[in-house]
Amino acid sequence: MTLPQDIASLQTKMSAAVREHWKAFLIEGILLVVLGLAAMIIPPLASLAVTIFLGWMFLISGVAGLVLTFWARQMPGFWWSLISAVLAIGAGIVLLARPVQGTLTLTIVVGAYFLAEGVATIMYALEHKKELSERWGWLLTAGIMDILIAGFIIAGLPGSALWALGLLVGINMLFGGATLIGMALAARKGA
After folding, report:
1. Is pLDDT above 80 for 134?
2. What is the Cα–Cα distance from 168 to 152, expressed in whole angstroms?
3. Alpha helix (H) ranges present in 98-135?
4. What's the pTM value of the predicted model, to 2 decimals?
5. How many domains does the chain have?
6. Cα–Cα distance between 186 and 183 in angstroms, integer?
7. How far apart are CA 60 and CA 67, in angstroms?
8. In the predicted model, is pLDDT for residue 1 greater than 60?
């Protein structure tokens, strides 16, 4: 069980660590902002890079999973683990062998995700309208925006495969980097 004094101690230690390493957070933030802007400027290249990166991640995790599955073959669920590892290897090989088609597939998945997320968010907002009082409108708006993004992506296929992944990853990197920069600068002032 976590006690309040443990939480306060943990927060103090975390703050001290961030203050001590603020330069590393600043450098990482600047790098993320630069890469995010590059991805937003050249989204087709970023989309392809994301697909190739995911291909390598699937391939590496699949090979590791295969090795670990055979290493622990006496464990329950051997066949399910084996199937999972083989599927990951297969997905990695497909994404690396045909990254352009992989980008299209990933874009369809992202579009479907935004659609499902938007519908779920709208349903949540409507169901909890009473508990959320005036804030439910923000949630409803977020759900509508998710559906609009999904509409742009899905309606623009296959052309949206050129820009969607790269742009979304670029936006994510830009905001993540800006957050790290802000955190680093605040930690520097506190040091």
Report:
1. no
2. 13
3. 99-127, 129-132
4. 0.75
5. 1
6. 5
7. 11
8. no
Nearest-10 Cα torsion for 133, 138, 140, 142: -160
Whether residue 37 lies inside any domain: the answer is yes
Number of residues that this document lists for the chain:
191
Percent of the chain, pLDDT > 70? 97
Question: Which residues of the chain form beta strands (DSSP E)?
Answer: none
**How far apart, in whole angstroms, are the C-alpha atoms of residue 166 and residue 95?**
16
Evaluate whether residue 6 is within a structural domain.
no
Residue 42 lies in a domain: yes
115-126 tens-digit pLDDT: 999 999 999 889
Range of the domain at 88: 23-190
50 to 6, 10, 165, 177, 182: CA distances (angstroms) = 40, 35, 7, 18, 26
- 3 falls within a domain: no
CB 54 within 8 A of CB 106: yes
CB contact at 8 A, 103 and 48: yes
Burial of residue 76 (CB within 10 Å: 0-12, 13-18, 19+) is exposed
Give the whole-angstrom CA distance, residue 8 versus residue 28.
27
